[in-house]
Predict the 3D structure of the following.
Amino acid sequence: MLVSIFLSALAVGCIYSLIAIGFSLIYRASGILDFSQGEMTMLGALLGWSLVSRASFPYLAAMAGVMVLVGVLSVLKQRIAYQPIRTRSNSPVLIIISSIGLLMILNQTAVLLWGAEPLQYPAQIAEGGRRLGGVWFPMQTLWIIGIAAVLMLVFHLVFHRTQFGRMMRAVADDPLMSRLVGINVNHSVGVTFLVAGALAAAAGALYAPIYYASYEIGIIGVKGFAAAILGGYGNIVGAMIGGIILGQVEAFGSTYISSAYRDVLAYTLLILVLLLRPQGILGERRRSDA
């Protein structure tokens, strides 16, 4: 039973991690708290449903498609809603308000296009399972963990082992110096939004077959944001770890305490971490000059 709970929680935690990486990546590259990131997850779920159910795409092809579509939409979001504000005033408050407004626009547009009723994917990602040592391993859970792990590994390798990844990290660490050495900062930030949107879309396409596709799925963005803070906001590895920890706390808390306290336990953990270690698990403590 413990192994089954752990695997199920790991699958959900990996989904949280993908969303959390997007939050942290955007913040590192641009300093923006993008609260519309959860709606990118929602669009991934709904667009994936349309491609699988209406266009008869294979599931993996549909996931690749929604990652591209939502990634491009995320870049447009940055160019239209955020970049003009940063150019004129660079006010964090105005950017946050813009992101909340964009969240509402995307949410209500989804209701108009797909309706308010939950939509069920026509089939599971992978049916059946395997029994090893008396423990049942559902194939759908294993597929989710495998796909999410591959996406995070590929992202990690690109971010840390390629010239392009080094440019992205340089912009995230010091935009002004990056400009001075000839890096196109606006282009790099745009690509960051592309990657963050694609990862969020993948999270939505992984999450929806377990539960459902709906305009309400965007609320999962709150869990991704919590995971990013838990791991250390702006820390990519911390975002991965934070999502997995959050998934485990929710699952084991629901099993051994009560499912009614699932969210309470998750956010209680978040508050405790912020009280005891405000920078998060892997975040760096900032020293005050005062």
Q: What stands out?
A: Strands lie at 129-132, 135-138.
